Amino acid sequence: MENSTVSFYFNLTMFMNIGHYRYPAFVFCLLLYSFIVSANLAMIIIILREKTLHEPMYIFTAFLSVNALYGSTGFFPRFLMDLLSDTHLISRPACFTQIFIIYTYASYEVTILCIMAYDRYVAVCHPLHYHRKMNSTTVYTLTFFAWVCPACNLTVCIIMVVRLPLCGNNIQKVYCASWNIVKLSCVSNAVNSIVALLGAIAVASLPFSCILYTYLRIVIACWKSSEVRGKVLQSCLPHVISFVIYSITSLSDTALSRQNLEEINPFAAIILSLEFVIIPPVLNPLVYGLKLPEIRKQIFKTLCLKPHTKRTFVEHC
Fold first, then answer.
1. Phi, psi values for residue 90, rounded to 5°
2. Are 17 and 266 in contact (CB under 8 A)?
3. Which of 11, 64, 88, 216 is most exposed, with minimal Cβ within 10 Å?
4. What letter does residue 52 receive in the DSSP assignment?
């Protein structure tokens, strides 16, 4: 039985540290998940329904919301079930499926932010050629690579992890993570660590470099022309905020996975490990909904409200 458990199941040990806090945590996370689904679904519906929002910038914003629903659905249902369960065993197929969903969600987030940065770069630095450069063919091509490349990369990585011989089944997290499984390998961790680190750097460097380069060019363009500075900052600020949020949360999880979790406060470890799964899906619809004027106008219109009006909701409707 012991060998069977090690072979076919993983044990998510971080739930053991939650104790009686699991019931308020369940209620809070259920409300959080409900908000994520509602807010991002509302963003998608508003952008799809309103023809004036059928432009690359808003289409890519809708992709962020789609990705938020994808990542949240791959994490929250299982997490909520585990919060109320006394055992936290997860089968190998379910574990690797969760790894694929969560890690592709994280990869999709940065690739979508990358093509959004390129869209803003073209709009600011080449405004006269924007509609020619960001035509439907370009949008479809960028979208294809943004979704397909991370999926192919993660498929290869997971195949490599699946083939590792394991000498244990305890995962020090509340969800399955590839590096935690690599640490269970009977093969030397030094080799696995170097390979994983080089692979992560290679995969992350291209979109991050692209994002940094495009925003550097945008800053230079704004510095030269004060006339368009306000308008540019208004349209680019949500993207910058999303990129900063994603960078901080993903780096926190990456740094945490390399630490000895027994030396860290368990609640702090859980919160840090969940940041990149929870914070971007919560904040992105708020940031884009409040900061982009066209989307904000449609939200007010949907709620039967007009900006800068003193009439109440009931009176206006």
1. -130, 135
2. yes
3. 216
4. G
| pLDDT level of residue 311 (50, 70, 90 thresholds) | very low
With CA atoms as reference, report the closest residue to 100 among 165, 175, 29: 175
14-42 confidence digits (pLDDT tens): 876 666 778 888 999 999 999 999 999 99
Most distant CA pair in the chain, distance: 72
- Note the pTM of the prediction, 2 decimals: 0.85
Closest-CA residue to 255 (of 275, 240, 241):
275
DSSP 289-306: HHHSHHHHHHHHHHTT--
Tokens at 23, concatenated: 């019931």
Task: Return the bridge partners of 10, or none.
Answer: 90
DSSP 211-275: HHHHHHHHHHHHHH-STTHHHHHHHHHHHHHHHHHHHHHHHHHHHHHTS-GGGS-HHHHHHHHHH
* pLDDT tens profile 132-148: 999 989 999 999 999 99
Amino acid at 230: G
Q: What is the DSSP string of 105-134?
A: HHHHHHHHHHHHHHHHHHHHH-GGGHHHHT
| Mean predicted lDDT score pLDDT of the chain | 82
Q: Do β-strands 89-91 and 9-12 pair in parallel, antiparallel, or remain unpaired?
A: antiparallel
The Cα–Cα gap between 27 and 49 comes to 33
Q: Which residue carries 């390998």 as its tokens?
A: 185
Tally helices (H) and strands (E) across the chain: 12, 3
In this prediction, residue 186 carries a pLDDT of 80
3-class secondary structure for 147-170?
Answer: HHHHHHHHHHHHHHHHCCCECCCE
The residue type of 82 is: D
